[in-house]
Amino acid sequence: MLLYRSVFSLEMNCIMATKDTSQKISESSAKAEFLEGVKECLPLLLVVSPFGGIFGATAIANGLSWQEALLASVTMFAGASQFVFLEVNNLQLPAFSILLAVFAVNFRHILYSASFADKFGLFDFKQKILGFFLLTDPQFAVTELRHETQSVT
């Protein structure tokens, strides 16, 4: 599930990284841009893919059922958050403390999203929110690199 979600996230953010605001995008141009974005992001799968297996094994070893591990994977997108959740959850702390710890680890994603806000002009509010939720560290790096040479949206 984490791998599927990671691939979806890579595709969504890479789509966002390949749009061009200088003109309306034709159907064939949009497809070409999508494929270019996927091609640029495929190497990231080598980095992202192992986290699913590692987190799943670690979650089971820490006493979570496979359903709970799956729920954690679906609701916490960043790998670091998942591991922080496991450690803090083992301490039997209140839910608010667990949420606060996970939020603190991922505060950088709010900064990432803020830096992208003006770069995604063609996307409506819902698309931006979805893209920002699915944003990961490697995708941020790829998008910033692309922005140095051409328009991101």
Give short descriptive properties of this protein.
153 residues; mainly alpha; 0% strand; elongated; disordered N terminus
Structure report:
The chain is built from 8 helices and no strands. The protein is 76% helix and 0% strand. It has 153 residues and is mostly helical.
SS-derived structural category = mainly alpha
Cα Rg: 17 Å
Helix content: over 70%
The average pLDDT value, as a whole number, equals: 76
Shape: elongated
- Low-pLDDT sequence parts: 1-8, 17-23
How many helices? The count is 8
Determine the strand fraction and express it as a percent band: under 5%
Largest sheet: none
Distance between the termini: 29 Å
In sequence order, what are the helices and strands, one letter per element? HHHHHHHH
Number of DSSP-assigned strands:
0
What's the layout of helices and strands?
Blueprint: H1 2-17, H2 27-61, H3 66-75, H4 79-90, H5 95-105, H6 107-116, H7 125-133, H8 137-149
Short description:
With 153 residues, the protein is an all-alpha fold. It is built from eight helices and no strands.
